[in-house]
Amino acid sequence: MIEVKNLKKKFGKVEAVKNVNFTAADGVITGFLGENGAGKSTTLRMIGGSLKADQGSVTIDGRLVSMRDPQSRRHLGVLSDAKGLYERLSTRENIELFGSLCGLDKSTLKDRIQSLVDLLDLSEIIDRKTVGFSTGQKMKAALARILVNRPQNLILDEPTSGLDVYSTRHLRDIIRRLRDEGICVVISTHIMQEVDALCDSIVLIDHGVTIGQFEKQHFLNEYQAVTVEDAFVSAVDRASEGRG
Amino acid sequence: MTILKILIWKDLKDFIRDRRSLLTLVSLVIGFPLLYIGILGITASKVESDRNKTITVEMFRGERAKDLSRFLETQGMDVQQKSGDFDKQTFLDGPNSLAIVIPSVFTLSGPMGGQKQRHSIDLMVDHRDQDAQKQLQTIQGLLTAYGQSIGNRRLLLRGVNPAITDGIKVRLVELNQETMAASIVLQLLAAVLSISCFMSTLYLTIDSISGEKQRQTLEPVFMLPLHRWQIYWAKIVVCCLVALLSLIAGALFFTYICRHPSFQSAVGLYAEFSYGLAMQGVFIFFPLAILAVSLQLLIATVSRSIKEAQGLASLLGIGGMLPAILASTLDLDGDSLVVQLLPSISQAKLMEGLIKTSEIPVSQMFLSCAGSLIVAVLAFFIGQLYFYQEKVLKTT
Are residues A112 and A7 in the same domain? Predict the structure, then answer.
């Protein structure tokens, strides 16, 4: 479970995140929604520990996340918008690297990689260097890399961006399967169909402030909308009016 | 320790598969020794060809100094007799850079002329020709020898032994020609090692941090359950290892070429130069290589792009070699504590000592190591502190 409280972050004079609060429960896919520049990625980077929050706190399974406490990230897997694969290493070597850095021994690693090859259909690219991979291949390799440790909490930043229809469907199936295994999944996206198709819970963020956290049906009811897209637009418009 | 080993192995693998870093390293290890030795070979062959080259000298009013003309010709000079008076512009426009002008009152036609007064001749030189200075020295030497021979013959005519005019007889005995050759080779080795320190890991260090920033591979690793210092330490260990290997490979390759008979006969340097001596050079320069790696990693950490890092690291390379160059031109006191501590200068001074005695003084080596390593550790810790700043992920 991920709990975010009163998170604030400034870059110079720009307040990227002003006040973000939400809770992402285990066995639930939480959609983190917001326009471009709303502060989604900055919030996720603070949860991942690569950025330090100016104020507020992030706890993962009850443990406070800190840049200087690596163990606080032990149960977290982050797929950031930058996939960051080592291009001179093969997919297998990329996965092995992350697995061994998370403390997996060789035999466990071997078994896990084989199950990931099956789960993500990696057989064609597993022993290829990742340089020159398509967006879909990069996504699969990066996802395999964070899943090898079987983290209890997953953060996926724009996971389907650039993927074709088949890859998107496949990835959604995988995410659902992970949710069904009891994993806490947070997805940052601005693709409303994705939220519609995947998310159980929705966190709305606008101009660095959380507008609210809703169950999907409650979200539609709250804004008297039929689709998540309509509800999102109404919510953002209402927030803009509120800001004056 | 396991995490560090995993990271070191990953960085090594990444480096070995990076063709650009490898090529830079290999071209440096092979290229610079070859370059220096090539320059030495060219210089040696130029000296040899100059030695065998016939010097041409124009002579005006040569009919008044026929004996001198003959003397110069017997010494291998090409004497071109010119008629008329010497004209400066015509001479400068001509192909030769030396001319001898015999004055009109010069009547000496041979050593038996018996004139009581000393005659002077004018030696004209055109310094625009690169070889003019060397040719001038040769002809001045010959003219002095000619003058001396005339003087000797006059003394003989008067029944005086010319040897009495020599106040002291000097016999040149060269005791250490081989040591001199080894000293030249060691000076070249010092230059090769100094360049290797600052250049061999330049691409690797920049790529391992600035390159990773640009390829966005750092952030996913930052989100793993490991300390950032472990990532930084792994990088410095790999870079230092590569620096050491390049120093050793460069020194071995250089020594191999210098000991090769075909090189020795081509250059004329028969140096008593052992692999052990070359390894002592590596030992002297390794702390400087560690310092260079620390500074390059610091630059890569604070720079926002690969280009910025490469620019700064190249400046560091030039700046790093400058003190050694200054030390060779300025007469610095080798016993001064500052000189013994200063990175680059202290290594140059230690190499000077090695050339003279084939030994490294322990105290001087300790100070040299301490000087370089203190700065290296400082740069390393500043870099590591910066590695914890979020600015480290910023790129332009």
Answer: no
For the cut 90, the answer to whether the pLDDT of residue B372 exceeds it is: yes
Closest-CA distance of chain B to residue A46, Å? 10
Which residue of B2, B16, B21, B222 to mutate against A (max A Cβ within 10 Å)?
A: B222
Q: Domain B54-165 - what CATH class?
A: alpha beta
**Are the C-beta atoms of residues B144 and B155 closer than 8 Å to each other?**
no
Domain termination site, one of A99, A123, A150: A150
What is the torsion angle, in degrees rounded to the nearest 10, for the CA atoms of residue B272, residue B278, residue B283 and residue B288? 120
- What phi, psi does B355 have (nearest 5°)? -60, -40
Identity at B13, one-letter amino acid code: K
Please list the rounded mean pLDDT of every run of 10 residues in chain A (244 residues).
93 90 94 88 90 93 88 90 87 96 93 93 93 89 92 91 84 92 92 87 92 88 86 85 72
**Among A50, A86, A100, beta carbon nearest to B219:** A50
Q: Specify burial of residue B251 (Cβ count, 10 A radius: 0-12, 13-18, 19+).
A: buried
The token duo for B365 is 């080596």
Do residues A225 and A177 share a domain?
yes
AA letter at B202: L
Helix (H), strand (E), coil (C) string for B13-54 = HHHHCCHHHHHHHHHHHHHHHHHHHHHHHHHHHHHHHHHHCC
- Give the distance, in angstroms, between the CA of residue A20 and the centroid of all CA atoms in the same chain: 16
Q: Are residues A163 and A101 in the same domain?
A: no
B34 vs B299, more confident: B299
